[in-house]
Structure of Sterol desaturase family protein:
Amino acid sequence: MKLPEALVNFFGLGGIETLTSTHPLTLASFRSIAGIEAVVSPIFPAILVCEIVFLAWAYHRSPHRLYAVYKIPVLMYAFNWIIGLLINIDVFLWTQRHFTVLAPFTAPLHVVWFFYAYVVWELSHFVYHWTCHKVRLLWVLHSPHHAPKHMNLGVIFAAFFLQGTYANFVRTAICSILGVPMELLILCMVIDACWGSLIHFSEEAWPSGRSGCFLDSLLLMPSDHRVHHSSNPEYIDTNYCNALPIWDKLFGTLRREIPAIRPRYGLSRPQKPNDFTDTYFGEIGLLWRDVRNADTWKKRALLVVMPPGWGSTDH
Ligand SMILES: [Zn+2]
Ligand SMILES: [Zn+2]
């Protein structure tokens, strides 16, 4: 019996299904980008299920905590899934086609050029993520990701539905214009999606969030992303990269976790506890209120493009 499409998509089994529908599955099937994607895609959903089971065990004396931890991410996943059924905005192919023609060269498919591609990819992620924090209209898209008060793998589903569209546009445009071909771009996206999910491990499942070896200085670890999600003044607006901290180092935004300062998750404004409407629409509501109350058109325009908190007293 065929699994419902939504479940197949959620558990990342679409790639395996596509591979097996055309040819019998052999080792050679996995030596392609589609093959790598098919193998990698189910890894995160499987780890997520393990984390849910682990937290269910850890909170078995107070099951309401499990409900509180996953309520907002699950509601946002469901809400975005329904919107995705109604509106399907896929800018990836369009952007790739239109920006590749502007590239002065195309990187060859070689392992050395893969490293070039990944450094460029991380730059594009830095630009996308930094602008999400520094332009108030884009913060509207990104703030639901920062709203959860508990860090766990479900937080990756916490996002305004247009955030993915903006991310796809910026990252694809920058990579394409800097000569990253489609194959390397997809490979970078697969690795990024995987690592970018795993850095949301809960403190219960991975208390230190560090590997304890050389990887801690080479990669951004869950501990570093916890710092990014924190509203503590010492941590706010840091660690924009996803896997390689290279651009954070260069632009001075790299911040390691200080043992004495525990990350305090959530937004810096007062939030209604575990409230979906406030989490998803809170920032757009506040932006609309500030724009409406502004006394000049210049101030209205600036409120939209300046960083969160500009011209306002309650951020
Ligand atoms: Zn962020
Ligand atoms: Zn995150």
User: Anything to note?
Assistant: The chain has a mean pLDDT of 91. DSSP finds 15 helices and no strands in the chain. Residues 145, 155, 200, 225, 229 surround zinc ion (ligand 2) (CB under 6 Å).
